[in-house]
């Protein structure tokens, strides 16, 4: 299993970025084409490229939303197993996403600290001592 820490945990989805860049390039080129040679086909292609760009954005948003739902489910199970499930409803999704990096041994105390100090996701991740990697984020 690869090492992961606060410094190396950030996930940057390369394929989504590449798809977005190619789609933006297509939009620019097709707008130039439609300006120089206006036709129904040119405007149809511009519309189609905006549709593809929208689909790229939607696919990323849906992926992140689904992952957050899975993380919430995982964290609810972990907190229940550790006897801290009464605190689950008081934590925001971003706090739960950050708390997933904490090992079971430090999770209950970190949850208590998060609730008492209203820690942000970044503050939670910085407070994790025994990092539990998440190598499956997409």
How would you describe this structure to a colleague?
The radius of gyration is 21 Å and the shape is elongated. It has helices spanning about 15-35, 40-80, 95-100, 105-115, 120-125. It starts with 13 loop residues before the first helix and ends in an 11-residue tail after the last helix. Helix content is about 65%, strand content about 0%.
Low-confidence stretches: none
Estimate the strand proportion.
under 5%
For the biggest sheet, the summary is:
none
Rounded radius of gyration (Å): 21 Å
Fill in the keyword field for this structure:
mainly alpha; single chain; 0% strand; 5 helices
How would you briefly describe this protein structure?
Helices cover 65% and strands 0% of the residues.
Helices and strands in order, then pairings?
Layout: H1 14-36, H2 40-81, H3 93-99, H4 107-117, H5 121-127
Helix pairs in contact: 1-2, 2-3, 3-5
């Amino acid at each position: 299993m690869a090492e992961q820490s606060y410094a190396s945990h950030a996930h940057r989805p390369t394929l989504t970025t590449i798809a977005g860049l190619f789609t933006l390039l297509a939009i620019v080129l097709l707008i130039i084409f439609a300006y120089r040679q206006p036709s129904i086909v040119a405007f149809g292609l511009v519309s189609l490229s905006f549709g593809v760009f929208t689909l790229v954005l939607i696919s990323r948003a849906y992926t992140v939303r689904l992952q957050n739902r899975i993380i919430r489910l995982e964290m609810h199970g972990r907190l229940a197993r550790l006897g801290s499930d009464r605190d689950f409803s008081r934590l925001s999704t971003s706090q739960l996403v950050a708390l997933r990096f904490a090992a079971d041994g430090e999770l209950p105390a970190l949850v208590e600290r998060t609730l008492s100090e209203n820690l942000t996701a970044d503050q939670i991740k910085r407070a994790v001592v025994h990092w539990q990697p998440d190598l499956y984020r997409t």
